[in-house]
Amino acid sequence: MPLLERRDVRTTAILPLTGDRGLAGAFNAQILREAFAQERRLRDEGVEPRWLVSGKKGVSTLRFRRYEVAQSWTGFSDSPAYADAQAIAHRIAELYSQQEVDRVVVIYNRFESALTQRVVAQEVLPLPEKLLEGDDESGEATRGDFIYEPEPEQILARLLPVYVETELYRALLESAASEQGARMTAMRNASKNAGELIESLTLQMNRARQAEITQEILEVVAGADALTA
Fold this sequence. Notes:
Elements (H helix, E strand, L loop, with lengths): L10 E6 L10 H18 L3 E7 L1 H9 L4 E5 L8 H16 L5 E9 L5 E9 L26 H77 L1
Parallel strand pairs: 1-2, 1-4, 2-3
Antiparallel strand pairs: 4-5
């Protein structure tokens, strides 16, 4: 099975899942920060990185830095559909099966709460060996007394791509939930900061106005004293 094949890693695809819009605090920045950290580690190990990216913010950042992007996907970061995950999964499976990349890492924000999102770097290809647990020592799947229709190899050939699609769809949903949480937190912090700034400026304005009134009173009093002297 091509998606289960493990080989020497010479090229790794990095796929950050970013948002299409800003105003979400550090949501996009922390994904890209981790993606660039992954790139540096790969180059230190002698592995060539290859970029794919989801989300307009990731696309614009990579193009600004003059990175070559193999493929990008945009327009669905707020509400991803399963078809979006299928499109990405089909492309990375194609790159892996054709041996254009030897590993695929997806970087996204995992939703933990509305206030907390954690950056995760997940290897989606090659598929984990645990998927074939239960094989016998010869490497053949243990069939027992069951009759399979169609053959197990055909079942795997159909299910493995679906597994990749499902993992990517889960990552996209986690990212979408994290983006909404990050945006809500960012907007709340912005409102709080704006309120504090209004209070500070109002206090300064009142002090300045009071100082001006006091000065005018002193000038009136001084003028009256001068007339009666």
